[in-house]
Design goal:
single chain; 133 residues; mainly alpha
């Protein structure tokens, strides 16, 4: 079991702060049941990453994330990050996601392709929430 670095209540506050800084809509009142379930799942992954000390929300709206191999900084994507998705076909959704992550971190998509899947899940959740809301 992973060690708790940040208590759950503080982690929830950090999640809300992330949503505010990144302008992610976290008001579930207008969501249907499927969207609520997806939102809650992504939220849980992000909160658990904060609890374990892997993810931190910085005052400048960047995120610090411990991949297990190195610490990376994640910035709010700029338009060019979205353009990276155009390199891939519609059925290459994971490639597109890694391309956006690359644009947000300065890392290549292959960096994420080689990352431990357990450490990748919170990053995928961050992308899902940002693109969705």
């Amino acid at each position: 079991m992973s060690k708790t670095i940040v208590d759950r209540e503080t982690a929830k506050v950090e999640f809300d702060r992330l949503c505010e800084l990144w302008e992610i809509d976290n008001d579930m009142a207008g969501m249907d049941e499927e969207d609520k379930a997806a939102f809650e799942g992504n939220k849980a992954k992000i909160i658990n990453a904060v609890i374990r000390g892997r993810l931190a929300v910085n005052d400048d709206a960047t995120l610090s994330y411990d991949t297990g191999e190195e610490n990376i900084t994640i910035a709010i994507p700029k338009g060019a990050a979205y353009m990276e998705m155009d390199r891939y076909k519609d059925r290459e959704g994971v490639h597109k996601t890694y391309a956006v992550l690359g644009g947000m971190t300065g890392k290549s998509p292959s960096f994420f392709a080689n990352m431990d899947g357990r450490r990748l899940k919170p990053l995928m959740s961050i992308i899902a929430l940002f693109l969705g809301g």
